[in-house]
Design a protein that fits this description.
The structure holds 2 protein chains of 2 kinds. Chain A has 17 helices and no strands. The N and C termini of chain B lie far apart (66 Å). Chain B is mostly helical. Classes of the chains: A mainly alpha, B mainly alpha. Chains A and B meet through helix 1, helix 3, helix 6, helix 7 and helix 8 of A and helix 1, helix 2, helix 3, helix 5 and helix 6 of B. Chain A: Its main location: membrane.
Chain lengths: 290, 346
């Protein structure tokens, strides 16, 4: 009797890779092959970025570095105004992150903690706008910024962030709603106003959410392409992705240079990912899971 | 530019505002004006209802979003409907043409092509991505040593920007020098022309999209961790094997997350743009994605009215596909709340 039921339960605390060696080997082989597929284009990009133009034509799929032309990277940052574009990218990434975190945490806090009349209706409106594709408002937004004389400046890429985005409002609301309400009561007893309470009590506690949202936003804004493609015409305001796209069409044959630039654009995302891996996965957990 | 805005700008220039900040001045003035009104309203409300501080705080807190909603969502929606009924090149004043833009769109062979390409992409790539990401998540959810490394590797491609990705894959799939055909050549297979071949361009983009399933995979992983382990223990006690545990436990528990990923996938895939832009629409319009064609009309040909009509057509398509997915999945998705509701009834 016990011999049938017990082993299953008892074995659960023994790692399964000790139990089933064949399956473990098969899994590792699949994992290794899959990883190769996923990482190979990366390695190829790196290897190609270090080759000469002639080397690209002859080396095919090889990622073995026959040559190390670090000069490609020097050329990548000097043959076009790389630092100018990088500055534009940084400006259109960091300021909007600050703006989104500010506006969305404020609204999220209100929806989670200040249950007043019409709050529910308004929150339904927030959720409804999540369904609206950006393309519908793309053309009229362009006209709005055109009326304000802001086309071909960085402002259209920066300003909207200060006015909230439904997805992140929703995220912050979920986070604040899970915090204990006693905090608010205590703060009220201490004679705290609502804004002070938000700023000094709740926002510091929401640090994990702020960090996770900031990372997600970083990836979004840093890699944003449609926005700059719409609003930016002149060279001085181009962001890195836009410059790379233009570079691709103008200089399509200089593959090593293109790859070096692509690597340079990707590096900040990879660095941030590694620096904040835990916060990011936690952040995605509360994004997607619940 | 609006004449009032122009006037304010010239005033700002006279006052010595730095050139880079001049475009901001009219907008800031509008904002200051708006907030003056809001502050006055809050002050008056506070005097009239001294105990309504919570309500006042709520409206102040959501005011950035509310202003943005009016300025960047509701206003544009209203004007987009109007503009879609006009012919407008941004220079001469808009001319009302009724439904002409819509009738033109329905007869435009390029719209038909764009819809075909975009829908084909969505219908093929979303199920592929959803299934693959789920299988990968199941694989990466096993607690083998070193799994963190594998998870990181499979997620990394999702960090590459759309442009860099497309630039990279244009070369991976280059018929002469590319990685793909070289690998295939070693197995004695003559690779196709990929992006250069009208018949292969779309399949190539679909193939390429599978490289970035990492985002969806991470969400599945988070969901798999949330499935209560005592359910598995109970199932194992009842004698359910791995396969039955998967079909009767993992899959139902994960179905809301699968639906979430499928929906965001559908909406995202219908809005694909960068790939079409970089490839200039592909050979014979094989990569003429809908948003790319919309962009082309609005910001290359300055046909604002026609582009607005296209945007509304896209909206209807997205709505329809979302509704179909929701309807079709209603029987297959299991929610925790359903169970608790049944329990309560008992």
């Amino acid at each position: 009797m016990t011999a049938v039921a017990e082993p299953l339960v008892l074995r659960a605390d023994r790692p399964f890779w000790r139990r089933n060696l064949t399956l473990t080997v098969v899994l590792y082989v699949v994992l290794a092959l899959g990883s190769l597929v996923f990482v190979y284009p990366f390695l190829w990009m790196l290897a190609t970025s270090l080759r000469s133009l002639a080397g690209v034509g002859s080396s095919g799929a090889s990622v073995v570095p026959h040559e190390f032309l670090w000069d490609n990277y020097r050329r990548a940052v000097t043959s076009f105004p790389f630092w100018r574009y990088a500055l534009n990218s940084v400006l259109t990434t960091l300021i909007p992150i600050a703006g989104t975190v500010f506006s969305c945490s404020l609204a999220g806090f209100a929806f989670a903690r200040l249950q007043v009349r019409f709050a529910g209706v308004l929150f339904a409106v927030v959720l409804a706008t999540m369904l609206l594709p950006g393309e519908v408002t793309m053309v009229p937004q362009f006209m709005l910024f055109n009326n304000f004389g802001m086309v071909d400046t960085l402002y259209p890429l920066i300003l909207p962030a200060f006015f909230g985005s439904p997805f992140y409002i929703f995220l912050f609301r979920q986070f604040f709603a899970r915090m204990p309400g006693e905090l608010a009561d205590a703060a009220v007893v201490d004679g705290c106003g609502w804004f002070k309470m938000f700023l000094l009590v709740y926002l510091p506690l929401a640090r994990p959410a702020v960090v996770a949202v900031s990372i997600l936003l970083f990836m979004g804004y840093w890699n944003n392409f449609l926005g700059p493609a719409i609003y930016i015409n002149s060279d001085q305001w181009k962001t890195l992705p836009l410059a790379l796209a233009g570079f691709q069409s103008v200089n399509g044959t200089d593959t090593p240079l293109l790859m070096a630039t692509s690597v340079l654009i990707t590096i900040p995302c990879v660095l941030i990912f590694f620096a904040a891996q835990k916060q990011l996965t936690d952040g995605i957990t509360f994004t997607g899971g619940k | 530019m609006n004449p009032t805005v122009g006037w304010i700008r010239s005033l700002a220039q006279d006052w010595g505002v730095p050139n880079a900040l001049v475009p901001l001045v009219p907008f800031l003035l509008l904002l200051i004006g708006l907030y003056a009104v809001i502050a006055l309203a809050a002050y008056l409300a506070r005097r009239k209802w001294p105990r309504a501080d919570k309500t006042i705080a709520f409206w102040l807190f959501v005011s950035p979003w509310l202003i943005g909603f009016c300025l960047f969502t509701i206003g544009p929606i209203a004007s987009s409907i109007y503009v879609s009924l006009t012919s407008w090149d941004l220079i001469t004043p808009p001319r009302f043409v009724g439904l002409a833009n819509y009738t033109e769109a329905f007869q435009d062979p390029k719209v038909a092509q764009a819809l075909k390409v975009t829908l084909l992409y969505a219908v093929v790539s979303v199920p592929l991505q959803t299934v693959l990401a789920f299988l990968v998540a199941l694989l990466l959810n096993t607690d083998l040593p070193g799994m963190r490394l594998f998870r990181t590797i499979w997620y990394l491609p999702s960090l590459v920007s759309g442009v860099a990705q497309m630039v990279l894959f244009l070369w991976v799939f280059n018929p002469q020098y590319g990685l793909m055909n070289d690998v295939l050549g070693r197995f004695g297979i003559a690779g196709p022309g990929w992006f250069n071949d009208a018949g292969w361009a779309l399949p190539t983009v679909i193939l390429m999209s599978l490289w970035t399933i990492g985002g969806a995979m991470v969400i599945y992983l988070a969901g798999l961790k949330d499935v209560p382990s005592n359910l598995y223990e109970a199932a194992a006690l009842d004698g359910a094997g791995a396969v039955r545990q998967f079909w009767h436990l993992t899959l139902p528990q994960m179905s809301p997350i699968i639906l979430f990923n499928a929906l965001t996938g559908i909406i995202g895939s219908l809005q694909i743009f960068t790939q079409g832009f970089i490839a200039n629409g592909g050979p014979k319009d094989s990569l003429l994605f809908f948003v790319y064609y919309l962009y082309d009309n609005a910001f290359q040909n300055f046909r604002m009215g026609y582009a607005s009509a296209l945007a509304w057509i896209l909206f209807v398509v997205i709505l329809a596909l979302t509704a179909v997915t929701l309807r079709g999945s209603a029987f297959a998705v299991y929610y925790e709340t359903e169970l608790s509701r049944k329990r309560r009834r008992r």
